[in-house]
User: Which sequence fits this backbone?
DNA sequence: GCGTAATAACTGACCGGTCGGTTAGTTACG
DNA sequence: CGTAACTAACCGACCGGTCAGTTATTACGC
């Protein structure tokens, strides 16, 4: 017999954090925060539970890394891309909501983690804070700016831009919550693309000057 | 010494279930489903944990009673009241959304339990089923009927009434989630009444024929 | 090159505390 | 008294976090 060529583990300091964060995103999206098991995250990342604590202080710290390193980089470009467009308001807002719907369709884990934040923020306020700072405020601020710019150009009726922003994105978010929460127990699915189109036709018909 | 005149407990078979359900609503609204402790529900209801199991089979069974006996009776009249109105569509929809906003403002536990359902449905699908059947389907069905009636009367543009329903209630629900989730960690509050007014002005301006 | 000592990445068993649900026994009350 | 409402102690399973020990890898002496 030659020596056993099968090491029990490898030392891969550089790759571990990314792999752990990726596994954590999957498990948090599937189970929520409290119900996510660190043993399972470790198993999926191919390490032992103890190794998690070499790279992250606590479970909340790991969640912060998930939002900061993976979720936020997916969401931010949606709003920023719209803000950077130099086009009539109607074109910009249609692009923005279309991209948002596309993102929520292409990676269901984003919506799933949003659900987690909503559902567990009372027991873990830190989750709400993390989400607010990394995802929500950048998105809302940019969106509000786009609407205000439309008003300054005389394209959009007067009114609180922030409330208009809720009017635009509310139905999209609710349709995502519907899909994640009630479709699995038999509710009729919603066609988000059509919802966005019909909603914008309705709102813009009344909102544009 | 005479005999101790202070009984350790009273036998109150008729009142117990209602008191337990009321306590359970409070605790579920505060902590969520998984994190709600049966000991605490029992304590607030003035009984021992064992007594809970004289009236309810499991924790999920208790949650079902909360939704069926307390939450649904608060929500159903909102939609049904609107459906029963014989008035122009604009009046009916304004009344419906106004009452919904009023309900969510007057008893925050309703919104809090909705959050619980959203956040924990993946781990406890039964919660979603209970909410869907007791709250959601009655509400959506009635709402869709109101919109379809408006279309039949020629007051509302053509289009899928169900998608319009999401367009109407989406912003209200999102503002409730915002209040429950992010205002406690420092986000700017929203004036729901104004949101409803401004949103309806915008949508109806484009939606009415 | 080649053994070997030093280092740190990593493992896995373990602990204290928690909680849904059970049940043996106690008490109110007709 | 009889009985059923009620209590309180209990159980088994679970899990975040810890840490003593193991092993891959590197540094170094020769």
Assistant:
């Amino acid at each position: 017999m030659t020596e056993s060529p099968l090491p029990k583990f490898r030392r891969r300091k550089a790759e571990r954090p990314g792999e752990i964060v990726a596994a954590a995103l999957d498990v948090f999206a599937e189970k929520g925060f409290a119900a996510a098991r660190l043993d399972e995250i470790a198993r999926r990342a191919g390490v032992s539970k103890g190794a998690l604590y070499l790279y992250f202080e606590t479970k909340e710290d790991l969640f912060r890394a998930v939002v900061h390193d993976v979720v936020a980089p997916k969401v931010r470009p949606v709003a920023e891309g719209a803000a950077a467009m130099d086009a009539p308001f109607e074109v910009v807002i249609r692009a923005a909501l279309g991209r948002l719907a596309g993102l929520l369709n292409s990676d269901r884990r984003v919506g799933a983690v949003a659900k987690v934040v909503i559902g567990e923020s009372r027991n873990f306020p830190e989750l709400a804070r993390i989400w607010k700072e990394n995802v929500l405020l950048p998105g809302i601020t940019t969106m509000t700016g786009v609407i205000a710019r439309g008003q300054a150009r005389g394209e959009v009726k007067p009114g609180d831009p922030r409330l208009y922003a809720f009017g635009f994105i509310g139905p999209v978010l609710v349709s995502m919550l519907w899909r994640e929460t009630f479709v699995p127990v038999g509710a009729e699915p919603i066609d988000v693309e059509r919802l966005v189109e019909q909603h914008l036709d309705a709102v813009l018909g009344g909102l544009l000057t």
